[in-house]
Design brief:
globular, 6-stranded mixed β-sheet, FAD/NAD(P)-binding domain, 12 helices
């Protein structure tokens, strides 16, 4: 705590936003809307181009019974100030709570019903707009949003809640001539299992959470052939353990040097379960990221990110057990290697690859390869029309490490030349360049709650050193 400074201090902002337009109605956008509605006299326009994902986004629109949340239900309340909200919703429907890992379909239903309740109570102040935003412009103290089928819409502020961008093609699979039946570029944009013989060999490019989802869906749809999951290191997510006590938070900031941090984590893990060590860093992860310079962040991404991801983003025990069973049956294998090139055969995809640490090149022939490298944030490589137009207009720019949108510490987007927008903000995973840990519900719900208060000048900001 800084000498003589109050623990909290009120910081005046621009005049209150009476009308807020939110672009994207996934978890981030929906929960910002619901938090804003708790403030009086605020009108909210929630804009989503995909009606089927209104309130859920991509993450929670899955209907697969095998797709479980990666966080226990007890920590999945949509509201930062109401930790029991989701558990109460589950209990009211006889679904239990405690340490359960419920399906993502159940969580999507929870979000849709919560949004519907808010619409019923605040229909005069909440408008759901099923449309696509073409452009966002500022002028005369307002923001104007041009829509494909309507508009323009005017607001005091606009907030980009566009979620994750689709995966980028690995270099060896970037050839646009590869047939769609042999190479699936985005597993969430198509029914990737359609037309696939049940005994066909499949390559899953990537070994993280997206790969796990795709593998489970293939298995649930009756696929019996060999699945090879490949990434540079071949790492796969670890499992949650049941019955662990709640982790003791880290009270002092760990050493900012990455090597020292790894040594600290290893020492702590030798004394207690490593999951508790990783979880104990949660309250200070954003602080650690904020205090790191560009070079240190780049080193983390280059050397430690894959290991952080598989330890931090873990699998529900039931999901991990299904993956273990597939491996034991010989139907699933994980490989560490690099795909060097790919070419289409008559009805197969032929790939040359090199195993990690090896010099010889092997060949893999599959009926289909599925890009499971996970969501990306590089604006330069994005095919999203709105992102492309805003980049061309200089309204937005990538953050230094191209993890997402460049923003200031209060969420205002930064455009070409370093110009900070007064009326255009961003939330959710595309702000990971500034916050890093902002992809899971527990982090996003805090972010949207704080932003809602700032937009109506009803916020208290933590003092320096807290």
């Amino acid at each position: 705590m800084s000498d003589g400074s109050p623990l909290f201090q009120f910081r005046p902002r621009l005049r209150t936003a009476n009308r807020v337009a939110i672009v994207g109605a996934g978890f981030s956008g929906t929960m910002l809307a619901l938090n804003l509605l708790e403030q009086p006299d605020v009108e909210v326009l929630l804009i989503e181009r995909d009606r089927g994902r209104m309130g859920t986004g991509v993450a929670y629109s899955s209907l697969e019974s095998t797709h479980l949340l990666n966080v226990r239900a007890a920590n999945m309340s949509a509201f930062a100030d109401r930790p029991e909200h989701f558990c109460n919703w589950l209990s009211a429907r006889g679904l239990g709570c405690d340490d359960a890992f419920v399906t993502r379909a159940t969580y999507g239903r929870y979000l849709r019903e919560t949004l519907a309740d808010a619409l019923g109570e605040n229909g005069a102040r909440l408008k759901l707009v099923n449309d696509e935003v073409l452009a966002i412009d500022e002028g005369d103290g307002r923001v104007s949003l041009s829509l494909v089928n309507g508009g323009p819409i005017e607001a005091d502020r606009a907030v980009l809640a566009i979620g994750n961008l689709p995966p980028h093609d690995p270099p060896a699979l970037a050839d646009e001539r590869l047939p769609a039946n042999l190479y699936v570029r985005d597993p969430w944009a198509t029914a990737f299992e359609e037309g696939l013989p049940e005994d066909a060999s499949v390559l899953v490019v990537g070994t993280g959470l997206t790969a796990i989802d795709v593998i489970l869906r293939l298995d649930a749809r009756g696929h019996k052939g060999l699945i090879t999951a490949m990434s540079r290191r071949g790492l796969r997510p670890h499992r949650h353990l049941e019955g662990l006590s709640w982790p003791k938070p880290v009270l002092a900031r760990p050493a900012p040097d990455l090597s020292a941090l790894v040594r600290w984590a290893r020492t702590e893990a030798a004394q207690r379960d490593w999951r508790l060590v990783i979880d104990s860093l949660r309250p200070v992860t954003q602080m650690m990221w904020a205090s790191a310079d560009r070079e240190k962040r780049a080193r983390f991404l280059r050397h430690l990110r894959p290991y952080w991801d598989v330890h931090r983003h873990r699998l529900a025990p039931a999901v991990a057990a299904r993956i273990d069973a597939l491996i034991a049956s010989g139907r699933l294998r994980f490989r560490a290697g690099k795909i060097l090139n790919a070419r289409a055969g008559t009805d197969t995809l032929i790939l040359d690859w090199r195993a990690r640490g090896q010099s010889n090149i092997a060949t893999l022939e599959v009926a289909r390869a599925i890009n499971c490298t996970g969501p990306q944030g590089d604006l330069i490589r994005s095919a999203d029309p709105l992102v492309g137009r805003m980049l061309m207009a200089g309204r937005i720019r990538p953050d230094q490490l191209r993890l997402g949108l460049d923003i200031d510490r209060e969420g205002h987007v930064i455009g070409a030349g370093g110009l900070v927008s007064k009326r255009l903000l961003a939330i959710g995973p595309m702000t990971r360049g500034d916050l890093w840990e902002v992809v899971a519900v527990p982090d996003i719900r805090v972010q949207v709650s704080a932003l809602a208060r700032r937009l109506v000048n009803a916020h208290w900001t933590a003092g320096e050193g807290l």
